[in-house]
UniProtKB/TrEMBL annotation:
One of its GO terms (molecular function) is metal ion binding. InterPro entries: Cholesterol_7-desaturase (IPR050584), Rieske_2Fe-2S (IPR017941), Rieske_2Fe-2S_sf (IPR036922), VanA_C_cat (IPR044043). Residues 9-111 form the Rieske domain. The keyword Ligase does not apply. GO terms for biological process: methylation. PROSITE patterns: RIESKE. It comes from Palleronia aestuarii. This is Vanillate O-demethylase monooxygenase subunit. Keywords: 2Fe-2S, Iron, Iron-sulfur, Metal-binding, Methyltransferase, Monooxygenase, Oxidoreductase, Transferase.
Length: 357
């Protein structure tokens, strides 16, 4: 049984990845051909001709239609309906491909892989800082991981690993025994902690310019199924900022958009939003260098875990207090998948049943 939530918006690509060329992307185990139409809009179609199953991405464009490179069947780039079968005038109803709902915002291309009738564009992830001129927005890379998306997502609601996986970039030993707080009653699962009056971590030594001790924070927000926001920053200890005064410090949001490719592969497209050095053209690149190093550390850990999970185990895995957020996340994903496996026909109950709840 698949472990993918289908009725959700996923990031298919950064806008800069999509042009007039027919490009194949694999999302939730399905191949999709994506291209930019002549009017600037984006089309996403099932990347398989229904005739002999050649990928349409190996064909060519005829205006905004896509022509199969095998026998020339041509499909409307918006609806997926067949518009031409060379050698015959009738167009079989079965000669069609799936057309996916797509939305482009903030130079991000979102795709809906589930029931098109449930594609609520108002549910696409957003945050005020992406449109606020007081914040600098910068897209990073598309990090490919040989790991299941559930493990990748768990890592992004887990402040406890930072001290050990990222000792020279995002963490240090000062945070090893600082308790992690977890809140699971909202739309997002949140895990956070503050480290007061401590040496700044490598990231803020290089970027924040701190030469004394700082108060620093990590807030991890995990939105089901596959979006994570990490709010982290530092402020001089003598400023004694409160938890609701984080904008007074050097504050960074690292956004992670996880796209499951297959059961064992995930793409993590990451970007960052900052409240400092907005006019410094080199700041984003310097930050990218530091974040690439940190995310490479995560990649090494997650891919090693993936390999070990595939091997037989002599004992049941253990869970610790720090696993509260990941456990709730897995439960929510399982519930979402279970709901999609059944059609709800009880919205208008039969009079034969009277409910007293």
């Amino acid at each position: 049984m698949t472990s993918f939530v289908r009725n959700a918006w996923y990031v298919a690509a950064w806008s800069r990845e999509i042009d007039a060329e027919l490009r194949r992307f694999t999302i939730l185990g399905e191949h999709v051909v994506i291209f930019r139409r002549r009017d600037g809009g984006i089309s996403a179609l099932e990347d398989r001709c229904p005739h002999r199953h050649l990928p349409l991405s190996m064909g060519k464009r005829i205006g905004d239609d896509v022509q199969c490179g095998y026998h020339g069947l041509t499909f409307d780039g918006i609806t997926g309906q067949c518009t031409r079968v060379p050698g015959q005038t009738n167009l079989p109803a079965a000669a069609c491909v799936t057309a996916y709902e797509v939305e482009e915002r903030h130079d991000i291309v979102w795709i809906w892989m589930g029931d098109p009738g449930r594609a609520d564009r108002g549910a696409i992830f957003d945050m005020p800082e992406l449109s606020d001129p007081n914040w600098a927005v910068h897209q990073g890379d598309a990090l490919h991981l040989d790991a299941n998306y559930l493990n990748v997502a768990e890592n992004l609601v887990d402040p406890a690993h930072v001290s050990f996986v990222h000792p020279t970039t995002l963490g240090n030993s000062a945070s090893e025994n600082v308790p992690v707080h977890v809140r699971t009653d909202g739309e997002a699962i949140v895990a956070w902690r503050w480290i007061r009056d401590a040496e700044p971590v490598g990231f803020f030594k290089a970027f924040g310019g701190f030469d004394g001790n700082v108060d620093r924070w990590h807030y991890y927000y995990l939105h089901t199924p596959c979006t994570a926001v990490i709010d982290f920053g530092s402020a001089p200890t003598e400023d004694a900022i409160g938890e609701d005064e984080r904008d007074r410090g050097v504050r960074i949001f690292a956004l992670h958009f996880m796209t499951p490719i297959t059961e064992g592969q995930t793409v993590d497209r990451w970007m960052h939003v900052r409240n400092t050095a907005q006019d410094d053209p080199e700041a984003a690149e310097r930050m990218d260098v530091l974040l690439r190093k940190a995310f490479a550390e995560d990649k090494a850990i997650l891919e090693a875990v993936e390999k070990e999970e595939a091997r037989p185990s002599k004992r049941r895995p253990i869970r610790l207090a720090i696993d509260k957020g990941p456990l709730v996340y897995r439960k929510r994903i399982a519930q979402m998948i279970e709901m999609e496996r059944h059609e709800d026909l009880a919205a208008d109950p039969s009079p034969a049943f009277v409910y007293h709840d």
